[in-house]
Amino acid sequence: MKRWLWTAVVVLAVGGGIWWAVRALAGDEQKIRRCFTRLSELIDKREGESLILAAARGQALGNVFTDDFEARLELAEFSGHFSPEEIVAHAARARSQFSRLELRFADLQVRLLPGGREAETAAVATLSGRSQSGADWGTETRLLRCRLRKGDDGHWRVMAAELTQGLAR
């Protein structure tokens, strides 16, 4: 009888540990997906957006990135290491050129790295908009690869991003 009881305890402990690990990993993947949803919401701009809303979005955008964010983009002036403040300034400047701007992510793939504090992602990013003068800017579709780090506060932040050549225009 004691042997059966100990076997049951071990099976329950192992099963509970596996269940907890699966839930914890799924939780981090969901948090990473929400990070990309939030990034999209903060970049998006609707026609007639107030300056107050634009400023609030800009400040919140800085929280999506680590202090040592690295960008690897085709344009040399947007490649390198940037602080959250620099990202906010670049984003505000870019958003001010548009009356409407929309960023969408599709096919987001998330891979948690050993240790559970970093992750790699790949997604198809689509950016479209209309300039302040009313000209349709068109649609840019690119492959975006990112590396994220989990902060001490439990939030995932983008620490590196690489944007590849256009997939379609």
Structural topology:
Layout: H1 2-43, H2 51-61, E1 65-72, E2 80-82, H3 84-96, E3 98-112, E4 118-131, E5 136-150, E6 156-168
Parallel strand pairs: 1-6
Antiparallel strand pairs: 1-2, 3-4, 4-5, 5-6
Helix pairs in contact: 1-2, 2-3
Written overview of the protein:
This protein is an alpha+beta fold and 169 residues long. The protein has one domain: Nuclear Transport Factor 2, Chain: A (Roll). The protein has helices at residues 2-43, 51-61, 84-96; strands at residues 65-72, 80-82, 98-112, 118-131, 136-150, 156-168. The chain has a six-stranded mixed beta sheet with strand order 2-1-6-5-4-3. A hairpin with a 4-residue loop joins strand 4 (118-131) and strand 5. Mean pLDDT is 83; it is low at 4-25.
Counting H and I runs of at least 4 residues, what is the number of helices?
3
State the helicity in percent bands.
25-40%
Order of helices and strands: HHEEHEEEE
Alpha-beta content class: alpha+beta
Q: What is the number of beta strands?
A: 6
**What is the name of the CATH architecture?**
Roll
Q: Name the poorly predicted regions.
A: 4-25
Shape verdict: globular
Percent of residues in β-strands? 35-45%
